[in-house]
Amino acid sequence: MNSVKRKKLIDNLFTYGLVVFCWIAVQALSATGHMTNQINGLLVPICMYVILAVSLNLTVGISGELSLGHAGFMCVGAFSGSFFTKLMAEAIPSLQARFIIALVIGALTAAFFGVIIGIPVLRLRGDYLAIVTLAFGEIIKNVMNVIYVGVDNGMLRIAMEKKANLNLSENGRVIIEGAMGITKTPKASTFTIGIVLVLITLFIVQNLINSRTGRAIMAIRDNRIAAESVGLNITKYKLLAFSVSASLAGMAGVLYSHNLASLAAEKFDYNMSILILVYVVLGGIGNIRGSIISAIVLTLLPELLRGMNNYRMLIYAIVLIIMMIANSAPSAIAARERLLEKFQRKNTKEAA
Amino acid sequence: MSFLSCLISGISLGSIYAIIALGYTMVYGIAKMLNFAHGDIIMVGAFAAYTIVSTLGMPPILGVIVAVAVCTLLGVTVERIAYKPLRGASSLAVLITAIGVSYLLQNLALLIFSANPQKFQSVVNLPALKLAGGELSVSAVTIITVVTCLVVMFCLTSFINKTKKGQAMLAVSEDRGAATLMGINVNGTIALTFAIGSALAAIAGVLYCSAYDTLTPYIGSMPGIKAFTAAVFGGIGSIPGAFIGGIILGIIEQLAKKYISSQLADAIVFAVLIIVLLVRPSGILGKKTNEKV
Amino acid sequence: MNILEVNRLSIAFGGLKAVDNFNIEIKKGQLYGLIGPNGAGKTTVFNLLTGVYKPDAGIIMLDGVNVAGKRTISICQAGIARTFQNIRLFTEMSVLDNVKVGLHNHHRYGIATGLFRLPGYFRAEKEMDERAMELLKVFDMEQYFDYKAANLPYGQQRKLEIARALATEPKLLLLDEPAAGMNPNETTELMEMIRFVRDTFDMTILLIEHDMKLVSGICEALTVLNFGQVLCQGETAEVLNDPEVIKAYLGE
């Protein structure tokens, strides 16, 4: 039994090692001048997509619920984080300090939304849950699109539809500007911070999975009725997985919003949620390391193979369908098992 | 008067949702899957009609026929290639595959027709109906949409209740295993369901684009999701439910656009979906089901 | 001493009285059988006892505490564990983890302890591993501990389900058709195992079964259920010779 445990530990360490290796490789490449601007620009987004994919895998793979609203949590995180950074520009002069607090705020806000959305949503199952998470994601996007927040004389003012509705005084400033979102967030995200956040995400997700809590979450995924019969609190564990996943997405959102000069809600539509889902599925549902690799490869690949860009989504779509059929179709599973058996028989024959 | 015209446009939009929702509800009831790509079939139908009418300059009626033919074929093909192998797999796997199909259709259309909006020439070239001394004008598209919806409803209901194939559909939706034992061709019945659903999607696509006259590869996804909302609202699996749900949702959307906020109309429609699912997941006319222990 | 006393337990589904005025008394350490024709309401009784359904009326005294109408989780904690007619394992998890999920409420540590790998985590996990392996050993399954539950043969799956139920440390174990789908040899083995479990764990067991060889072989007392009502109750030999019971099983 100890050998199985050791294998698992080594497996986990290998995943951290992979991330650290990526960081070292990038440092080495940039020191020797092998990094193009184009790839440099992709480093932070790659970290962001890795966090998103790993956190969505917690919901889809470990908890077994298909969420199509992951971009919504990212949106909440991005806006709350950027809002804080801009609001506190004078109060906390150090950008680094503001950014770190913003990351925490983004994660907490998204976790909060994860809980209040999760409570109703997690009562539903399967297809209904998927469509309702999609609906929530779209609602978040739509509401962020019309919301205006300004500040004057130390007071926050919130309005809908028009900037004029804020009734700001002369010395006031607008922070969130409807469809324009938040502009001129200072650029605080760096590749190193991104890598640190990826490591934190991995730490949380992997330790959660390999604990009593993680076992409960997976047991509920595998058989809800049996899980209840051995005394597991279904709602508690489902909600826990969902909100941890949401908060990590929120953190990724803060990383995103501090990497770009402008932040608009439009970006967080359901296509974004689906793109993250594509990463999760192609990396293997429930496979954390797979999510990391697929997020890295699928972000880099289209940029490296220019001209393929038009076909990128098309290829994703085809691969997605093929992967699902190959992995889940009863006939494909049976065929694979037959093949494996044949292979094993051949091996034992040779051994004999 | 503006309330009345708003109501009429709501009924018109709702009729389109109802036609799409019929496809959703039939596929969900019989194949037990959420065909996420159903919305994109609408888009394919609209592009098929667009190619025939605007690009090739042929008569509109031919456009409609070609759209229906293309979509029927597409629906059956998609079912055969992507969904049939997954029969018996988890609903998660089927749903992700359907999302893949949706993505595939969108991106194919993107490659062929580009992301630029195309001007869709309405297939209906009749003058608007003036009521109340010209104060209230109802466009011909609106009238044809509502009439089409009623005709489709009527035909579908009689098809299911009066024909052998229709009865087979009911049997498969009730209990697939038992239906197989009774000698019903389950695969054939599911394929037929997809064929009918996709044909309806084509009609809906043409009507939708005739009413809103722009066409992009993404046009199908929103009406698709809203029609699903309508199907859930009315009670998934129920044909009259899809009709009622569609009409109510169309009216809610138009009223919200007019009296609350045009930007928040979608959010309001989605909020309706969430409330319905939480308060009465079986919808207005749906049946309640419990998992057996 | 009675571990379970059920009185006037009833539930109706849309007018149909699925279980009507059901009574049962089970002594501590007893091996008790619940039999009856298909559709008599046996599994419904199990679902009522475990809180899957809320009874319309009646009381369920478990070791002196009324658990009728409580939630499944609290009933599990009060001490009733069960297996299912159609096996319900955590199919994608390992055999060991299946049992460890059963231990969930007995070896607790907080989420933070798990996340940050505090000493409590290693202590509790070690205890759980040891306890789970002990349970697997009872069922002669320790060599399968790292198998995926779904990959176990059918008979082993049934045993794993019992091991998982025992992990919750119940006072009363409910087995829903444990011999279903087993051949005569496997059934004989299962009978020995059930007896062994009763003796080693000092367990009280209530089981639903159609296999008369098993019922007459191991059950000390029986309740016969017909159309949701108790037809006959008493010691096994008496009950099986009751003319009413024979009539219900064989027809007029």
Structure description:
- The complex is a heterotrimer of chains A (352), B (293) and C (252).
- By secondary structure, chain A is mainly alpha-helical.
- Chain A has helices at 2-31, 37-62, 70-87, 95-121, 126-146, 191-209, 212-222, 224-229, 234-257, 270-283, 288-304, 309-328, 330-351; strands at residues 147-152, 155-160, 173-177, 182-183, 262-263.
- Chain A has one domain (2-269).
- The mean pLDDT of chain B is 87.
- By secondary structure, chain B is mainly α.
- The relative contact order of chain B is 0.20.
- In chain B, helix 2 (38-55) runs antiparallel to helix 3 (60-83).
- In chain B, a hairpin with a 4-residue loop joins strand 2 and strand 3 (136-138).
- In chain C, the strands form 2 sheets. A 6-stranded mixed sheet of chain C has the order 6-7-8-3-9-10, with helices on both faces. A 4-stranded antiparallel sheet of chain C has the order 2-1-4-5, with helices on one face.
- The chains are: A mainly alpha (352), B mainly alpha (293), C alpha/beta (252).
- The A-C interface holds A 1, 4, 203-204, 207-208, 211-216, 218-219, 221-223, 225-233, 240, 286 and C 50, 52, 72-73, 76-77, 81-82, 84, 88-93, 96-98, 100-102, 104-105, 107-109, 111, 114-117, 121, 124-125, 128-129, 133, 145-146, 164-165, 167-168.
